[in-house]
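Hey, resending since the last one bounced:
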Amino acid sequence: MIKEDEKYMRRCLELAKLGIGEVAPNPMVGSLIVYDGKIIGEGYHQKCGEAHAEVNAINSVKNPELLEKATLYVNLEPCAHHGKTPPCSDLIVRKKIPRVVIGCVDSFAKVAGKGIEKLKKGGCEVMLGVLEKESRWLNRRFFTFHEKKRPYIILKWAETKDGFIDKKRNSEETVEQNWITNQISKKLVHKWRTEEAAFMVGRETVKKDNPQLTVRDWTGRNPVRIVLDQHLKLSTGLKIFDDQAKTLIFNAKKEEIKNNLHYLKIDYTKEVLPQVLQRLYELEIQSVVVEGGEKLLTSFIEADLWDEARIFIGNKYFKQGVKAPEFNFIPEEEIWLEDTLLKIYYRF
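The structure tokens again:
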């Protein structure tokens, strides 16, 4: 039976992944209804605010009478509270589904075992912890957010074969980016932008590279853009201040909202990163990709504030310039994208 349960749970995880980039700050969840060794219904959480996976799976069953003899599979504990939708655990009990197999407990305070308790009190047999590690891994952003009270932090940069992330430039000039990687890598980064809540850069990166941080080489929504500009010296004519996406500007001068530009005042006489992460947590930003530059990336590394790192090694040499951050860890994955190597590091 355990192998059967694992087989169906893997399908739940496959379905859950279909919600990436659309359901945050909710978790990605997939669900199956199985009767007599056959899948008779399946669904996943498609968009934040809309029906949960269990509801979609139950509603997809053509013969509802079979529910009273079926097993429901779901990779995350069914909710027990009224949010934007009614509690899924109540629906499962009401439909008299006799057996429920769950991947892992939901650590969100309003659930945290309460859904399982409701199911058991309602007469359901509950099997917990099937592919638990895989279930937590899929929603590592969600669990980090609720358990550590901060966004899931991804460090990302590109460096040359000789270890530089930028050439030496005149401090007064604003130029196009010094591309280190290839077109495939660029397209992949744009895909990531559709999957993560926010992308962060420092003032010097905005000044030198004039990045837009929007999705252009992929299809999907733009992330929230974040820039740290203590004295608000950056020109509002730069691309990051256009109207294409919500932009947060952390600064020491003002707290103000102007259309899509949100000025967030923090105390620069104190540690900056804890304040930034606390504000992002309050804004329910579940994940953030820190793109640079070197000083900002190094500050996260030195503060031991990162959960994942994605480092591109391009097929170029600069010979001199801005050195890449020191990062003495062993990658979990190495992927070749034609002439560019992508190294990925995990700590979850």
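The mean pLDDT is 93.

Sorry for the duplicate.
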